[in-house]
Amino acid sequence: MKSLSILLLLSLCIAGCSQKAAYDNIRLHNQQQCEHEPPPTYAECMERANKSYAEYVRENKEILAK
Fold first, then answer.
1. What is the pTM of this model?
2. CB atoms inside a 10 Å sphere around CB 22
3. 14-61, pLDDT tens digit by residue?
4. Do the beta carbons of residue 34 and residue 45 sit within 8 Å?
5. Contact 51, 27 (CB under 8 A)
6. What is the distance between the alpha carbons of residues 54 and 38, in angstroms, rounded to a whole number?
7. Which domain holds residue 44?
8. Residues 4, 29 contacting (CB under 8 angstroms)
9. Count of domains forming the chain
10. 3-state secondary structure 4-64
11. Which residues have a Cβ under 8 Å from the Cβ of 45 and sit 6 or more positions away?
């Protein structure tokens, strides 16, 4: 799953897509993968997959600042 996401991200970047567009495509892929989760873990999976791009950027900036 991670290798597919990385491959998708690389192909989008090479194609000239913005970082947000690449993030949105990976987020969509992750949401689709959540559909295969059992009911007890589905909600948690969707919560992780539905993180907005702005939240993602903010969290990355915090991590890089440390």
1. 0.63
2. 19
3. 655 688 888 999 999 999 999 999 999 999 999 999 999 999 999 999
4. yes
5. yes
6. 29
7. 2-65
8. yes
9. 1
10. HHHHHHHHHHHCCCCHHHHHHHHHHHHHHHHCCCCHHHHHHHHHHHCCCHHHHHHHHHHHH
11. 30, 33, 34, 37
